[in-house]
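Question (not urgent): is this output format expected?
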Amino acid sequence: MSPIGAFTDVFWASPDGERVLLVGTERAARFVSAVYGFDRIDVVTMHAAHTGTTLDVEAGPVRIHLGAGPGWRIPLAALRPPAVTRWIEGPLARLALGVRTFGVSPSGVREWYAADEYRRVTAGQASIDRRDLGPLDSVWTAAGFGFSEPPRTPAMVRVRPRLYDPSGSLDAVLA
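Got this back:
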């Protein structure tokens, strides 16, 4: 859960490299954009449904349906301190998925992403403005979101982000 409560957002990058944030509320837009940089932020009607093995998202022009296989729960989720996320989980996640579990955002916010569960996506469909995006595939080109890039192999990963902002600029967004 975020400091502003639960919300759904979609990061996507167009083929020309434009980084877009789709989000359901102005407050969520301010919060996410205080951490990450985007070329465009659209507040849109959002609907998301997650059953554990499926994820359906409608976010303005974007439609996504994902189906996943069995999950692997990562033990002791709530007890792992940030150092474990950074120094132990980090190298494993980088090797296995091509992702990082710790980094500093463009705005200077330190972030730890502690994974609680992993499911490999086995089926997927996505469209933008009703234009099909093609078959499910691995991601090898960086989307441009800094250290928070998606896994190379499509996956549903339940994570607990921890944020620390030494500048205090997030406090203004949260007020």
